[in-house]
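HOLO CASE FILE
Compound: guanosine-5'-triphosphate
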Amino acid sequence: MVFNWFKRNKGKAEEESIDADAAAPEPKGESAADAPTRDVSGTTGEQGTGSGETSVAPPGTATPPSRPAPQSKPEPEQAQDEAVGTSEPVLGSPLATETRRPGLFGRLREGLRRSREQLSNSVEQLVLGKKVIDDALLEDLEAILLQADMGVAATREIMDRVTQRVRRNELKDPTALRAAIRQALLDILQPRAQDWTPQKGQTQVLMMVGINGAGKTTTIGKLSARWKAEGYSILLGAGDTFRAAAVEQLQGWAERVQVPVIAQGAGADSASVLYDAYAAARARGVDLLIADTAGRLHTQAHLMEELKKVKRVLAKQDPAAPHQIWLVLDAGTGQNALQQVQQFHEAVGLTGICITKLDGTAKGGVVAAVAKALPLPIRFIGVGEGVEDLRPFSAEAFVDALFAESGS
Ligand SMILES: Nc1nc2c(ncn2[C@@H]2O[C@H](COP(=O)(O)OP(=O)(O)OP(=O)(O)O)[C@@H](O)[C@H]2O)c(=O)[nH]1
Ligand SMILES: [Mg+2]
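Model generated. Tokens follow.
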């Protein structure tokens, strides 16, 4: 089986790759605290002292959190509304009062609607009225998988398995194709579904990295809500000192989910802010520091250097820090996501991937492409802007939602 469709469309993914960003400032020197650190707690009673090496502001001098101004960034009112309706409410959490919305699977299913229409319905149409599985049908199937952004490797694996089964006469009926693809996809995704949760009393650091607008800050907000509701103490570190209003955006989330945040002024050294934030986290004994970082393109060497520097600086306090580094990918970036995985992994060594905005694309197959790119765990997927729209990645639930019967 030759990848004819792919050959015809080969240049397309490259053309769709993101434009180079405008010039970004060089990272500053490695000194720990160039600017005074603001502790902008979203909660009362969680103020702590710095480690002594840092300039964490003492209680009382904390700058009151200013309301975030980000236009499309977490709109508190709307988001609050959206946070109404999960089937796993946790008392006292922003997720607690939800009753109106469809259940978790329903939300996942709805979030993947466009991808399902693209993939599952196309397969349905393909086999409609067909009596046998012949080469022409298999070639069309291959095109459908590639169009769903499964990528070459995952498409090849699925096609190989389906073709072998056809040759062995195990798969004759075209209507059984759907189930065969579903199973092959499940086998690709299953090894990547590896849950991660903070550990109480460990003061670990989770650093979020990714290109501009991938959903890092939003994902941090959603994760904070989830883990806070599960009883973990969380501190946020405003390491995106590059983009205007990035700190305010994180503070908006901190306020909304009631977790404290350590920040400095705009333009401060990212490594220095996060060093201070980690010192504060250790001093307070919080379970997890989640470090926000500036968006960058994987091609921006100096920004990649800044991430490496953040890593080095955190490791001065604990060689194991940062304990987790997760790449946040926008599902809509298509096959360019694969380059991002490669290059961020090369630069900082990833321990997980979050794939956001699956609700905004018909190309949810990219999850399979990412799964085949590197053997990295896919931790969470985002299927909407609401707090509860970030789901721990489950291969079964994902495949079920993607292949749910139309109208079910
Ligand atoms: N529909 C949808 N929107 C999302 C999802 N995740 C994030 N977003 C939106 O994507 C936009 C960008 O998200 P941010 O969290 O600001 O992205 P970022 O990676 O922090 O961006 P920079 O700080 O510029 O690097 C926001 O409008 C979010 O609401 C998702 O799963 N679904
Ligand atoms: Mg951000």
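CASE NOTES: Residues 216-217, 240, 246, 292, 295 surround magnesium ion (ligand 2) (CB under 6 Å). Residues 151-167 form the longest helix (17 residues).
CLOSED: yes
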